[in-house]
Amino acid sequence: MKEKRRILWPKSKCCLKKFLDLEFLAKYGSIAIIIGSIAIQSLNIIENKNFELSFFSIIINLFFLVVVLTKLEIIKIDSLEKYLDSLLKIMIFIFLLNFVAYLFANDLIQNYVYAPLSFLGAYFFFLLLYKKSI
């Protein structure tokens, strides 16, 4: 009886796919992580904490946002198209490096807020890189 009800369900071994749409998470999660990073750096500039480094981080994150929006075909930049996969791999590496650095930081907000956000960002970029239907 149980098999008859499952005929119309897609065959999948992943139980998370029943509850979460990975395509939606990869699209909007990656955009949200980058916008969150830009917002955090903007707050650092407002509070006069590491002005030069925060400004540089905003510029890099804006470039990352353009890369993600180009990958999602929201904007179209022809000169960037052939480098998208390489740039996403670099972004994954940078966010994983940030994750490790935030884990060993002395500040608790970096350990418990910024580190998971960096890891989620790397995961969402990984989904964008290897998911063909996005």
UniProtKB/TrEMBL annotation:
Q: Keyword check for Transmembrane, yes or no.
A: yes
Q: Which domain of life is it from?
A: Bacteria
Is Transmembrane among the key words of this record?
yes
What is the official name of this protein in its record?
Branched-chain amino acid ABC transporter
Supply the alphabetized keyword list.
Answer: Membrane, Transmembrane, Transmembrane helix
Q: Taxonomically, what lineage is the organism?
A: Bacteria, Pseudomonadati, Campylobacterota, Epsilonproteobacteria, Campylobacterales
Give the residue spans that cross the bilayer: 20-41, 53-74, 86-105, 111-130
